[in-house]
């Protein structure tokens, strides 16, 4: 039996704009949370933050094909619109935007965006097309919604910096706000991809944040960063991660490498590591 | 003696946005004409068209360094703000936006945009960085002004198609309108670069539109396009152009090459040719 959707769903940019325009005419402010669906408490925190910052909250669910490589999990990425809509409504969202791939990338679509700066290295070393896909879809979504504020999770810290740079460089008139990472009782960053993990893998995954926290203490203690990173890398393998893409301490502001090899400005430690076919990322302030 | 400006000038995006926001609060619609200054009747036609399409007209004057190559005429491109402001006011413009290079490209600016599609070939074969520079500055300007409509000249026909594709692909909520080319009494397309021409060169320049018109008749007659283009190329050299970058008949919609070598859809003929150090472009519907 089909349940009625607990909140209005716009499936085209035109329908979305019509609703937002109506709100604007009433003098209401608007905030926006873009997601790929399969929502968990982390997303709902973003929605509640968006609700504190504006009169009306729009969320989008779009599994963007251009940010997945051919070998990645586009086909199996979890999709569950009805449950997502209920969670969003309960968290204070007033409109769900669920465009089709054809709506976002019609025939003849050819534009690409490269943000440079914070998009270089880290994720890009392992997912070279990722931020290009993110930049285009976020530019589109921000321009479609025309919100006053958009909220992105610090869980994807490099993405947050890329989006902030994108919006600033292209003068997209939406303020980009970062919201702290939600974690489970063991400190594991909430992620839709955690659903892929077996119980054994889940136990291993929960070591990731601890290893980063220990390394952050050493980095803050001005130990040589190469050694700190090397030790954290070894710790992750010891904890049962089968492969570590990177563990890195970078300048928090722009993810630049510390030229002197020690931390001499506010920093962020970031990592990506694998358990079976599941790639987990995490990061925290140092 | 400094004359007072005949219309308000915004030198920052914030000042621009404040004025536009005030108009929006009064329920007024807004149109926009981006220029590089050195205004002539062609620009003023765009401003008048913009005035017919909205309650308030914003024009910008910004000689965008990123669309000039190192050997091009960035340094000598004519600049005359006071005269431009008077012409704009008389043509019905209510606000002039004149950002500095630092305002548009602050330290740390790293984003680039590639439109693909209609930006391929023709101008790009000879000015490879041109449309990349245009795409970024137009995306910025459109997002800064947030107009309902922006008017671009058909004189730069390839640019018009690139901007239209850019706005569509990135969902920039401004309608892109093309306006027909203004010509002098001899059919020469008006251009700020005509100011560089000697009287002798001017006489030669005035042959450009005639050669294109003759070639257009042959193309419309379904003659083989390779031969039509070759003949026009020779005619331009005979008319005194020292070098011809291209003469090409392309599909009007997207500048695609006619695969069958004859015109079988609405077409545009486009050319770029040199007189001394001055490069002239022109185009017309076939």
Automatic annotation (TrEMBL), chains A, B:
Compartment list: Cytoplasm
Keywords associated with the record: ATP-binding, Cytoplasm, Ligase, Nucleotide-binding, Pantothenate biosynthesis
Functional summary from the UniProt entry: Catalyzes the condensation of pantoate with beta-alanine in an ATP-dependent reaction via a pantoyl-adenylate intermediate.
Functional pathway: Cofactor biosynthesis; (R)-pantothenate biosynthesis; (R)-pantothenate from (R)-pantoate and beta-alanine: step 1/1
UniProt-annotated binding residues for (R)-pantoate: 67, 159
Family (UniProt): Belongs to the pantothenate synthetase family.
Other remarks in the entry: The reaction proceeds by a bi uni uni bi ping pong mechanism.
Active-site feature positions: 43 (proton donor)
GO cellular component: cytosol
Enzyme Commission number: 6.3.2.1
Stored PANTHER family: CYTIDYLATE KINASE/PANTOATE-BETA-ALANINE LIGASE (PTHR21299), PANTOATE--BETA-ALANINE LIGASE (PTHR21299:SF1)
Tree of life domain: Bacteria
NCBIfam families for this protein: cyt_tran_rel, panC
One Pfam family per UniProt: Pantoate_ligase
Assembly, per entry: Homodimer.
Any one GO molecular-function label of the UniProt entry: pantoate-beta-alanine ligase activity
Catalytic activity entry: (R)-pantoate + beta-alanine + ATP = (R)-pantothenate + AMP + diphosphate + H(+)
CDD domains to which the protein is assigned, alphabetical: PanC
GO biological process, one term: pantothenate biosynthetic process
Designated name of the protein: Pantothenate synthetase
Binding of beta-alanine, residues: 67
């Amino acid at each position: 039996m089909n349940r009625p959707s607990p909140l209005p769903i716009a499936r085209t940019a035109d329908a979305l704009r019509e609703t937002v325009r109506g709100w604007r005419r009433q003098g209401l402010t608007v905030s926006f949370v873009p997601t790929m669906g399969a929502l968990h408490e982390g997303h709902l925190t973003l929605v509640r933050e968006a609700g504190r910052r504006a009169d009306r909250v729009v969320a989008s669910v779009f599994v963007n094909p251009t940010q997945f490589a051919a070998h990645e999990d586009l086909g199996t990425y979890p999709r569950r619109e009805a449950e997502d809509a209920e969670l969003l409504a309960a968290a204070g969202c007033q409109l769900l935007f669920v465009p089709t791939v054809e709506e976002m990338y019609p025939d003849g679509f050819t534009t690409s965006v490269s943000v440079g700066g914070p998009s270089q290295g880290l994720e890009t070393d392992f997912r070279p097309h990722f931020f290009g896909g993110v930049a285009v879809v976020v530019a589109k979504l921000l321009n479609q919604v025309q919100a006053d504020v958009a909220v992105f999770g610090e869980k994807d810290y490099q993405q947050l910096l890329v989006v902030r740079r994108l919006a600033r460089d292209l003068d997209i008139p939406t303020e980009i706000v970062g919201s702290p990472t939600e974690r489970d009782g063991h400190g594991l960053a909430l992620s839709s991809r955690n659903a892929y993990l077996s119980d054994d893998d889940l136990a291993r995954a929960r070591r990731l944040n601890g290893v980063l926290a220990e390394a952050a203490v050493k980095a803050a203690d001005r130990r040589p960063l190469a050694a700190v990173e090397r030790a954290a890398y070894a710790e992750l393998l010891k904890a049962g991660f089968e492969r570590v893409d990177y563990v890195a301490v970078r300048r928090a502001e722009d993810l630049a490498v510390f030229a002197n090899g020690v931390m001499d400005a506010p920093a962020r430690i970031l990592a990506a590591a694998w358990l079976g076919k599941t790639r987990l990322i995490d990061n925290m302030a140092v």
